[in-house]
Amino acid sequence: MQDFGSNSANESRIQSLQELLGRTRTIDVREDDAFHGVILRARGLLELSDQEIADALLVSRPTVNRWINGKNLPHPAMRKPILSWVADQLVKKILAVY
User: Is the distance from CB of 83 to CB of 21 less than 8 angstroms?
Assistant: First the structure.
């Protein structure tokens, strides 16, 4: 189990992860701003680099970087599998905190 510091910090982290998980599962994939917000927040909360995300999703690092910067987002049809992967990562991180 990873050590994330004090119990209060753990509770706050778990709450942030759970909130993003809920948002990830209910997002309208047609909304560019919503998708961008989720992918940006997920990268930070999951502590993943652009390269780690790219490797997991089988895209290039510059592609992920463009998503993070909001310059070019994936087609809405591709967002659901991306968000599913993000949700899986969030669940793993939540379980690691417990």
Answer: no
CB neighbour class for 8 (10 Å; exposed up to 12, middle 13-18, buried from 19): exposed
Which pLDDT score, from 0 to 100, does residue 67 have? Answer: 96
Measured between alpha carbons, how far is residue 66 from residues 31, 59, 74, 81 in Å?
Answer: 16, 11, 10, 18
Contact status, residue 13 vs residue 97, Cβ threshold 8 Å: yes
For the segment 52-93, what is each residue's pLDDT rounded down to a tens digit?
999 999 999 999 999 999 999 999 999 999 999 999 999 999
For residue 62, the one-letter residue type is P
- Tell whether the model's pLDDT for residue 1 goes beyond 50: no
- Strands (E) located in the chain: none
